[in-house]
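Hey, can you fold this one?
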Amino acid sequence: MFKVRNIHTVLRTITSHRNKNNFRNFVTHSPRQACNFIINYKFHQNGRESDTKNRRTHKIQSFALMGLLGVTLAYCDNRLASKEKKLLRAAQFGVVDELNFLIKDNVNVNIRHQLGWTPLMVAAVNNQYEAVRLLLEAGADPNLGEEFVSAKRTARDKGLHPIEALMMREEEFSGSLSNKASFRGFTALHYAVLINSFKIVKLLVEKGANPVIENEAGHIPLMYAKEGDLKTYLQEETTKHTAPLIYREKLTQRLHQLKKIKEVEERRRFPLEERLKKHIVGQEGAITIVAATIRRKENGWGDDDHPLVFLFLGSSGIGKTELAKQLASYMHKDKAQAFIRLDMSEYQEKHEVAKLIGAPPGYIGHDEGGQLTSRLRQCPNAVVLFDEVDKAHPDVLTVLLQLFDEGRLTDGHGKTIECKDAIFVMTSNLASDEIAQHGLNLRQEIEILRAKRLKTKQKDEDISDNITVSRKFKDEVVKPILKRHFKRDEFLGRINEIVYFLPFSRNELLQLVGKEMAIWAQRAKEKHKIDLNWDRSVESALADGYDVHYGARSIKYEVERRVVNQLAAAHESGFIGKGSTVMITTVWPENTASPEIKLRVRSSGSNNFVDVEQNKFSIKNLSSLFGY
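Sure. Predicted structure:
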């Protein structure tokens, strides 16, 4: 049984012979003709032998060789049958007439061999100047990169045997190159420099070859040049191409500097505090602390070795999550992937740490990656919100401690994500009752400071240090609760700022009601073409529904219960419809401690408002409403 290496040996013997051109001629013939050639050639070599036994032996060997080469040449004949492959062979051996014929036949001059090289590369590496010139004139791209890596790796990628890939590389490209080196990214210019052909190098550069293109190893052609005229020429050409790149880099740096200057000027004109207050009601103390910390980071006065870490404390619905969202929007211009929110109630079990950073090798979900690591890899400077961090398992806190302390995280694949520029925000309801009970005193303090600001026309940053929770309350009430729960001082020690969110004042509650009513007025106009109006007494009545434990959510639910329910019922019964105007008012029934909210409706084309009695949508009222 003949082995592949025997095929390789036979082909090498024939193609290295002085009559190898005869072999090239019969490659396109039938296997039978090719084998007859080998037999005749073999007998001719042994014609001087008179010994019959030796002749018989050579005849047997020749017939065996005939069978072997019949299969081999049939394979070669099929492999080189296409015009594109003929082009590659013509470029390799510099067959100018064949090249001209194929080019005129509109064969693609940038076609790739199945292992990754182009006709221009094979012509350059074989020092075929005329072939290189013809291919360039026909439109061959001199800046295409080689896809061949090594025989072993390329064979694996292409589904071939490594020896087969090696044979194809040596016979159809070049046998003078190392079979262990990687050639991925090599251009025709790289190969021309390797063979030290000054003539081809100059031709390639004149026809547009870029001398600063790097291969996979990061090397430009100049790095492979030998001392002499070729290297001097390449140095000059490389300098010519590098100068514009340096200019572009300087221009990019200048544009970046101008952008930073513009951002600084914008922050001066429109401070972060003002941006946040457009979206968040109240919480002036929290906004001031966060804005001051971010300002420190933005202006280069922060710790570059550690990320910023906040802990937001306060009741539910008080604005903790919203502040984190608005912070991400400010930092990253509403870039969606720059805000990462993780509900830590989903990480209450020990094994769920894998969900955060990814499962280790051999476990289910290893290929999927972690919920945190995969998203941090996409945006390493994101704003990350760990919602309700007090519910997470202690092992999760260990991972977070590494993240906060080192500014990096290792995923289940062993890859490290650097995220020292990220901002981490944790929220918790720990000590929320204590903060709520202490809120009255804190609110009074804020009201005093607000009055002082209005009186003296001071800016927020001028009095930011004064708008704080008392140190005594922090040390004697809040910190013991945090230590009891987290049970590790080093975790609390990595938090840059513990931010306290206070219960809303009366004025802030009225603002919340006004915003919620404005939202419903917009919906009524867009969905039903109904105008919605109300007086201030309605806002005051709805503000009374505030629950300190549920924050702004309690206001939202109060508006839905007392206003939206009536609107929906009136709409269903036909009291209000397209073109209607609804006035929401309050009345004080006798012997009641709180006012009732009523609807008054004016239909389209009418000048008078009609009272709508709740739960009494009768046909009589409906008829009088529309003038029947």
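The CA atoms of residues 46 and 78 lie 32 Å apart. Let me know if you want another pass with a different chain boundary.
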